[in-house]
Amino acid sequence: MNKILVTRSSMPELDEYVEEIKDIWDTHWLTNMGIKHRKLESKLKEYLGVENVSLMTNGHLSLELGLQAMHLKGEVITTPFTFASTTHAIVRNGLIPVFCDINPDDFTIDVTKIESLITDKTCAILPVHVYGNICNVEEIERIAKKYDLKVIYDAAHSFGEKYKGIGIGSFGDASMFSFHATKVFNTIEGGCMCFHELSYEKELYKLKNFGIKNETVVDGVGSNAKMNEFQAAMGLCNLKHVNEEIQKRKSVVERYRTNFKGIEGIKLSPIQENVESNYAYFPIVVDEKVFGVTRNEIYAELKKHNIFARKYFYPLTNTFDCFNGEYDVNETPVALHISKRVLTLPLFADLSLREVDRICEIILKVREYNG
Ligand SMILES: *Cc1c(COP(=O)(O)O)cnc(C)c1O
């Protein structure tokens, strides 16, 4: 039986990619903001509906350098229900993460709990549009204005999404998108920062290129996070098909929703109002008391059938070994509760509806063996 992984990378036809990279053999320009880099940057600006884009070699470095470019000091309010990258980007900048709890329904930051976490050391809020569920951007903006805080979104999951018709990357001071192989849009590895303030552009440019100002002046201690031409070429190809890919994901998600309709104990993400979704992930939250079996039992049963769901996001980042118990997980009880019960099911453009049906059948049948 074929293995079904939680995701499968989108790729253009081989011929299409070969065509796109051909001229690299004429120019011998492999990296350092080449023609393809610049072309992708401008195409993404348009597609994402944002003012400015700085491409990077991956999403994590976009976030890390994005924070660095803001010259922040002190505490950053964020959530632990996310990928390691979000928290690590804060800590690796010498900043202190302050963990806010999440909403039980859409898993984004609970905006009613942000203000009580603000101290005189708070400098920024770093919320996550987790699974492509959009945060309460309006309330976050109100709080940020009131307390004069920067807002930088981890938008790794929300490529191409719109809220009230506005590109999701244009909310806050800056937003990071990831173009990792497993994301809705990929450049193999890759990512970008979107932002409003123009001074930020030069800053990011320098940070991703060793702090080099010009041939003789190096006035910043920068990193190296440049996207190369082969990555950019992959992006140019994939961008042509991304709308089609999102449409296919949509039918997979709709099939899952139909199959799980009315099933007690399996909670689905809400369909958010005013949001143009990208159908990035399909998380279910298993209430074992109602459904009869646990998340872990479902996970194990799927695995027996060569189907690999993922326990995203378990464990919470505030429980990671590397933090040596520094953070109290009981301060984010909703996130803790969800992380123990959530399971992200396979979802990619070419997942057939027949396979979706099979995955759902297996899940619904587990109860018979375990019940
Ligand atoms: C993928 C991801 C990142 C990191 O992006 P990379 O491109 O893999 O470096 C950051 N945050 C979240 C929530 C992600 O899912």
Q: What does this protein structure show overall?
A:
The protein is of the alpha/beta class and 371 residues long. 37% of the residues lie in helices and 14% in strands. The chain contains 12 helices and 13 strands. The chain has helices spanning 14-21, 24-27, 35-48, 59-69, 84-91, 137-147, 199-207, 229-260, 288-291, 295-304, 333-339, 353-370; strands at residues 52-56, 75-78, 96-99, 122-126, 150-154, 162-163, 166-167, 174-178, 191-195, 266-268, 275-276, 282-286, 342-345. The strands form 3 sheets. Strands 1-9-8-5-4-2-3 form a 7-stranded mixed β-sheet, sandwiched between helices. A 3-stranded antiparallel β-sheet has the order 7-6-11, with no helix packed on it. Helix 4 runs parallel beside helix 5 and helix 8 (229-260) crosses helix 12 (353-370). The model has no long low-confidence stretch (mean pLDDT 97). The protein binds pyridoxal-5'-phosphate.
**In sequence order, what are the helices and strands, one letter per element?**
HHHEHEHEEHEEEEEHHEEEHHHEH
Task: Enumerate the distinct ligands.
Answer: pyridoxal-5'-phosphate
* Strand portion: 5-15%
Percent helix range? 25-40%
Average pLDDT level: 97
Uncertain stretches:
none
Discrete helix count: 12
Instruction: List the strand order in the largest sheet.
Output: 1-9-8-5-4-2-3
Number of strands: 13
Largest sheet: 7 strands, mixed
Give me the Rg, rounded: 21 Å
The general outline is globular
First and last CA, distance:
26 Å
The structural class is: alpha/beta
